[in-house]
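Hi everyone,

Forwarding the result from last night's run.
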Amino acid sequence: MKINEIPEAFSATLRIKIIAALTGSSKTFNELLELTQATRGNLSVQLTKLEEWGFLTSVKVIEKKKTKSTYTLTAYGLNQFEEYISLLQSVLDAT
């Protein structure tokens, strides 16, 4: 990845927080809400964008008459995140 090729997924702090939170394991919507301190609406919009771009997948189940959504980082999403981190590290090393 080059500096002029940074994916749009990394252009918003909330999206970076979401991806970072999912690197260790899958998380529910409520867990991501707590970790990111985002509003429900903003978190929902950013999760939808990341899923459309192939960075994560979601599974929705009905639990006690409520929808429970769980999000998982895809191999593509993890690879892109690792490349992004490497790019940032190379920029820091060059200074």
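Residues 24 and 66 are 26 Å apart (CA to CA).

Cheers,
N.
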